Amino acid sequence: MKIADIMTSEVDTCTPQTSLQEAASKMKEINVGSIPVIDNDKLIGIVTDRDIVVRGIADNLSLDSAVSEILSESIVTGSRDMSVEEAAELMADHQIRRLPIVEKDKVVGIVSLGDIAVKDKSYGNADIALDEVSEPAEPDK
User: Which chain positions lie within coiled-coil regions (predicted)?
Assistant: First the structure.
């Protein structure tokens, strides 16, 4: 099965200038944990609910601060013609729960572990990714 068969193709995005408040509100409104950040239709990063908490609120940034101050620029992406198994392995290798799907740097979809678990009937793919993504990390102390 191809990732294009299970990905969400209507992806809400934000710009680098979007405030943390706007991004958090959008995540709540559409019930997601991340939003791709685009500039001139090109994917430049992704902001997650965790980014907002750990890099924003915990660092005492104003809710009016731009997501460009906290976004993850080192992003892993997939392509719509990759298999679900390839996507699951990529997510496991990089310990990520959401994978933006791009074509020529433009976001054309996004897939989450939940999408793989619910829409891919082989289920083993979600188990592969979830085992690796959910590996406990050692706390920095």
Answer: none
- Residue 23's closest CA among 59, 60, 74, 63? 63
pTM (2 d.p.): 0.81
**CA gap 20, 23 in Å, rounded:** 5
Residue carrying structure tokens 């601060």: 65
Q: pLDDT tens-digit profile of 75-118? A: 999 999 999 999 999 999 999 999 999 998 899 999 998 888 88
Helix (H, G, I), strand (E, B) or coil at 90: helix
Strands 106-112 and 98-103: what pairing?
antiparallel
Domain at 3-133: CATH code: 3.10.580.10
Biggest CA-to-CA distance, the chain? 44
Helices 124-133 and 84-94, packing angle to 10 deg? 10
